[in-house]
Each structure stands twice: as C-alpha cells, then as structure tokens.
Amino acid sequence: FHLGEREEKCIIEDIPSDTLVVGNYKVQRWDLHIRDFLESAPGLGMFVTVTSPTSEVLLSKLYGPQGTFTFTSYISGEHIICFQSNSTRFAVIAGSKLRIHLDIRVGEHFLDESAIQAKDKVNEVNIRLEHLIEQIHHVTREQEYEREREEKFRKTSEETNSNILWWAIVQTLILISVGIWQIKSLRDFFISKKLV
C-alpha cells in the first residue's frame, strides 16, 4: 500500500486469542529524479502500533526502513495495526510518497532451523513433531474462535427474526383495528344520515 510521509495508516486483523502474529515490512521512498520507488529508504523508519479490541496497546515501537514485528493476542477480536513514518519533515513539505510492502502471518510458530540441522535424526523428528502439535493447537483455537463468532451471529439473527415477527404481528393488529374502526365509523355515519 502507499502512504504519505507523515500519514498514518491502520489495518484491522481479526485474530483469535493466544495467537502469535508476525509482521514483515519494507519501506520504499518515491524518487522524483528517476520517477520510481527506490529499493530502500535509508534514514527512514516506521513507527508500528498494535492495539487490542479493548484499546490496550500491545506494541508501540520504532523500527527501521525494513523490519519484523511480533506480538501475541491475549483476547480474540479485531486488532488494529497502525504504521506511520518517522519523517522529520513538516507535513507541508513532506510530499514524498512511500510504498509499504507488508506480510502479516497469523498463528506463526518459530521453528529453530539450526536445531533441525542437527545430526541426531531422533531430535529432528521430535522437533518437527512438536512443531506440528503447535500447529494443531493453533488450528483448534482458530476453530473455537470461529464457532464463537458463528454462535454470536446466529443469536443476533434469531433476535432479529423474532423482532421482525413481532413487528409484523403488531402491524397486522393495527391494520385490523383501523379497519374495524373505519367500518364502525361508516356504519354510524350511514345510520345517522338514515341511508341504511
């Protein structure tokens, strides 16, 4: 995505609880002379802020023009990840465009490659097995979170359907009572005019 030098841009990620999130980014600055983005933006950094659904700040740190940030979600819900450059130029003259390459991996588990390359094959199998077990636990947490969301959505739908049903019943009763009142008023009018 593109970003102005002093502009802040936020991304919303729906993350289950107890999940590790790893984000990699790279910043490129627009060069007016070559009319293209430079491969890197030396001297320019990114201020990364992560906020939980309860507005608690989980991460607030200044990184370089390229970096990796990690955080763990403690509750499930929409986490807000915000980026802002640390440009020292004033907003009026900070007209440079920035291109941000961002890769966010939810539920990432670190796998120690140096341990895997160990000569003992039993340890290698054991480490891979532990990694697979961690991934299974992550998938289980993700499924539980989706079940919670589906149950909440189903309850909301049932409440809405119930409200619509009662509103239709109330409208029908009002329509019937207005019809009865009109018939009675017309009958009384005809009787008073001695037309019936």
Overall description:
With 196 residues, the protein is α+β, with helices and mostly antiparallel strands. The chain has two domains: 108 residues, GOLD domain (Jelly Rolls); 42 residues. The protein contains two helices and nine strands; from the N terminus they run βββββββββαα. Strands 1, 3, 4, 7 and 9 form a five-stranded antiparallel beta sheet that branches. A four-stranded antiparallel beta sheet has the order 2-8-5-6, with no helix packed on it. The longest helix has 72 residues. The radius of gyration is 31 Å and the shape is elongated.
Which secondary structure elements does this structure contain, and how are they paired or packed?
Blueprint: E1 2-4, E2 8-15, E3 19-31, E4 36-37, E5 46-51, E6 57-63, E7 66-73, E8 77-85, E9 97-106, H1 113-116, H2 121-192
Antiparallel strand pairs: 1-9, 2-8, 3-4, 3-7, 3-9, 5-6, 5-8
Explain briefly what this protein structure is.
This protein is 39% helix and 34% strand.
What share of residues are in beta strands?
25-35%
- For this structure, the quaternary state is single chain
Helix content: 25-40%
Low-confidence stretches: 90-94
Structure class:
alpha+beta
**Number of domains in the coordinates?**
2
Question: What is the CATH C level class of the largest domain, in words?
Answer: Mainly Beta
Return Rg in Å: 31 Å
Report the CATH superfamily of the largest domain.
GOLD domain
> How do the SSEs run, as a string of H and E?
EEEEEEEEEHH
The separation of the N and C termini measures: 80 Å
Shape, per Cα inertia axes:
elongated
Coiled coil: 115-142
GO cellular component, one term: endoplasmic reticulum membrane
InterPro entries: Emp24-like (IPR015720), GOLD_dom (IPR009038)
Membrane topology: Single-pass type I membrane protein
